[in-house]
Amino acid sequence: MFKAKVNVTLRPSILDPKGKAAHHALQNLGLTNIEGVRIGKFIEIDVQASSEEEARSIVESACSKLLANEVMEDFEIQFES
Amino acid sequence: MNAEVKFLWHKETDVSGLDMIIVPGGFSYGDYLRSGAIARFSPIMQELIGYAQKGGPVMGICNGFQILLEAGLIPGAMRHNEQLKFICKDVHIRVESTQSIYTSSLQKDQLLTIPVSHGEGNYYIDNDGLKELQDNDQVLFRYVNAHGETTPEANINGSIDNIAGITNKHKNVLGMMPHPERAMERLLGKEDGKYIFESILQALAIA
Questions:
Q1: Between B37, B77, B82, which is nearest A72 by CB?
Q2: Is residue A67 less than 8 Å (CB to CB) from chain B?
Q3: Chain B within 8 Å of A66 (Cβ-Cβ)?
Q4: What are chain B's domains?
Q5: Which residue range forms the structural domain that includes residue A25?
Q6: B1 Cβ partners below 8 Å, 6+ apart?
Q7: The domain that contains A59 carries what CATH number?
Q8: Do B38 and A66 touch (CB under 8 A)?
């Protein structure tokens, strides 16, 4: 079995209201060195496959079909070694 | 309104004999992941997509709009409201085009007062997509102030180009965030939403 770790992030050009609100709160906490916050999603997926390549293509398909909306989000897949 | 309504459960797969399909608002599958992202794969959606692609009229309201976006029937996507608040109030929208069954008996620039009720209504599309929407006259409604002006303040959720409702290229599929079905009766406060349904019935020659 393969364990995939997926990060889904909003494209840099897309406004991120949640990140903005968190950034604002952090500034209020005195963490003024923080210049920006972007919030995405972290997803762990267990896949049954015969090779990492096969597992990757299954996870890629999961991401582009459902887990990410490619109109405004990017995704990045990593496998636990 | 003298139109017969048939309620379809999301697990049904038969959409034959319908003059139009309305995908209503609410929440679907807890709106986990993204609003409408999981509902878009309900069994009935496959049939609905086929129906829409053959030119059948489909109207998505609020969560229905989000589902149609996720299904790719209308271009673009929804972000969280700019101010992160769930917005539930009456808003003014302006009729931008009468070239659709949804607006053909309305007037261009007509103002409608219709409630919104959503947390993710911040419409997004890239610049090329936006230009295409504008060039094809696909924007049916924009958020405006009481004087009918598209000001930043009137743009309640931060949508690109004050967009409140758009169609697909063929104009048979409409998605809109405001809820016309909640503004149907003067005795209950407002009736501007009724004009949209009257337009549809008239255009489809049902009433």
A1: B77
A2: yes
A3: yes
A4: 21-203 (3.40.50.880)
A5: 2-79
A6: B194, B197, B198, B201, B207
A7: 3.30.1280.10
A8: yes
How many structural domains is chain A composed of?
Answer: 1
Residues of A in contact with B158 (CB under 8 A): 15, 17
DSSP chain A: -EEEEEEEEE-TTS--HHHHHHHHHHHHTT-TT-------EEEEEEE--SSHHHHHHHHHHHIIIII--TTTEEEEEEE--
Instruction: Mark out chain B residues that contact chain A at CB-CB < 8 A.
Output: 33-34, 37-38, 41, 69-70, 75-77, 79-84, 122, 124-125, 158
pLDDT digits (tens, 9 = 90+) for B126-185: 999 999 999 999 999 999 999 999 999 999 999 999 999 999 999 999 999 999 999 999
DSSP state letters, B28-84: SGGG-SSTTTTGGGSHHHHHHHHHHHTT--EEEETHHHHHHHHTTSSS-EEE--TT-
Q: What is the pLDDT of residues B40-81, one digit of tens each?
A: 999 999 999 999 999 999 999 999 999 999 999 999 999 999
Looking at residue A43, its amino acid is I
Express each pLDDT in A34-73 by its tens digit: 999 999 999 999 999 999 999 999 999 999 999 999 999 9
Q: Cβ B34–A15 below 8 Å, yes or no? A: no
Residue closest to B176 by CA, chosen among B103, B80, B82, B99: B103
Give the distance from residue A11's alpha carbon to the nearest chain B alpha carbon, in angstroms.
11
